[in-house]
């Protein structure tokens, strides 16, 4: 590219990102003036209006069509629009995280915003001296999971991918500093940081449903994709236990946080963790979750782009 054109492109991208970030921050500041339930509803409605007007909406429609070839266009469109509402809630939840998490184990089931499945397992892991890797996908309010773990005395350091917009990324990292753990941006050096934590018998959390250009060849919804092999590599190196965890949005602004039983990763004939097969196992778990609540997964990213 011509140096002058490259400079102009860089300037306009930086300007565009800055304007987009400022607009988002302004919306979040306005939402913060409302109680959490009203702010989240407003974010849901606003995202359902704006999302379908963006280029990402077509990508969401295309992805849903590929994943659900048996569904008609009406279902595809309705799911994509509902998904934008979920994405609006995710953005607003950064503002309200500490207000949303009202879990009290003494409270009768069905009361409050948060219910937790797997309490006995949380307590069991709290007393374990073995390093643990928790994994989840971009479903529900996944940001609540480390907070939930901390409630039971489990500190979890979470690996997360920064947004492409540098201004939003900076704000998001600050907003994510809630009680209950630390954060490691997904960039050079992240693997070493997580390895250091596991070496000290600490606990880490990872999102495993993102595109990873140099990842292991796998499938997701029957379509080829590549999956980050970091989790099974860490498990192989540190002999960690692996636990699936997920967040599910429920009606009336409530959430269910689930910690599932330990997941056994596939092994080779020599007994070592089988990296490609393990990556496929992770995909299969996340796909099962998505099929239960398709509107709660991020359909507008290029998961299948090779």
Architecture overview:
By secondary structure, the protein is an alpha/beta fold. It has 2 domains: 3-98, no CATH class; 104-296. It contains 10 helices and 9 strands. It has helices at residues 3-31, 36-50, 55-67, 73-100, 119-126, 144-151, 166-175, 190-199, 230-238, 275-292, and strands at 114-117, 132-136, 156-160, 181-185, 203-207, 216-220, 223-227, 241-250, 254-259. A 7-stranded mixed sheet has the order 1-9-8-2-5-3-4, with helices on both faces. Strands 6-7 form a two-stranded antiparallel sheet. A hairpin with a 2-residue loop joins strand 6 and strand 7. It is globular, with a radius of gyration of 20 Å. The model has no long low-confidence stretch (mean pLDDT 86). It is found in: Cell inner membrane. One of its GO terms (molecular function) is acyltransferase activity. It comes from Aureimonas ureilytica.
Radius of gyration: 20 Å
Shape: globular
Count of discrete structural domains: 2
Main β-sheet, spatial strand arrangement = 1-9-8-2-5-3-4
